[in-house]
Specification:
- With 206 residues, the chain is mainly beta.
- The protein is 14% helix and 65% strand.
- The protein has an eight-stranded antiparallel barrel with strand order 1-2-3-4-5-7-8-10.
- The radius of gyration is 20 Å and the shape is elongated.
Length: 206
């Protein structure tokens, strides 16, 4: 699901950005994401795609689609896997100390959706005990900061890398169904999902 959505976004950006960007002012980029463990999610990996438009020599606007996945840690959440998909908007400030080399930093906000499934071992244990466990992570908003650098390899191609820090919390809903009486027991909690990540990839400039 993440890969299909990412491809659709990249194609849309490739069609739209040349129409709105002046020469050298618009970028589209793709990168690999390495998310670090945060106490609830173990380290994971994914993809990032962005469209960026320079509004002045030092300021640009960026729209990003980011997705990553990995395993959950067995604490508040049960052992299993997770998938995150987010859409973000950000403002970046950049400096160019040398021709072709640019440093950037900035931040923004986004909306994030989650998928979470417990492992088959957890499902089997619950079934043995006569129950079924479901855990749902609610969609949420978050804020992020980022800093990085890019290197132009010509007039239209380049490489970039950046470090990101995402600040967000989400509500979780835990439901246990008794498979004999079909009674449903539920509880909710809120967890911090602050996540640091590293991104590296390439960009196309129009």
């Amino acid at each position: 699901m993440i890969n299909r959505t990412f491809i659709v976004l990249a194609l849309a950006l490739a069609c739209v950005m040349p129409q709105y960007g002046m020469a050298g002012n618009a970028d589209i980029g793709v990168g690999l994401v390495l998310s670090l463990a945060n106490g609830h999610f173990e380290a994971g990996s994914g993809l990032l795609g962005y469209g960026q438009l320079s509004v002045s020599d030092a300021v640009s606007l960026r729209g990003t689609l980011i997705g990553w996945a990995g395993d959950t840690e067995a604490d508040v959440l049960s052992a299993g896997d997770y998938r995150v998909l987010g859409g973000e908007g950000a403002v970046l400030i950049h400096i160019t100390p040398a021709k072709g080399l640019m440093f950037h930093a900035g931040g923004g906000a986004g909306f994030y959706t989650f998928e979470h499934e417990v492992t088959s071992d957890v499902e089997a244990l619950m079934a043995f005990l006569g129950g079924r466990l479901e855990e749902e992570i609610e969609d949420t908003f978050g804020f992020h900061l980022l800093a990085g650098a890019s290197l132009a390899l010509g007039d239209s191609l380049g490489l970039f890398c950046e470090a990101r820090y995402l600040v967000m919390s989400a509500d979780i809903e835990v439901t246990v169904t008794d498979l004999i009486t079909f009674e449903v027991f539920s509880a909710s909690d809120s967890i911090d999902l602050n996540t640091a990540s590293l991104v590296a990839g390439g960009f196309l400039r129009f």
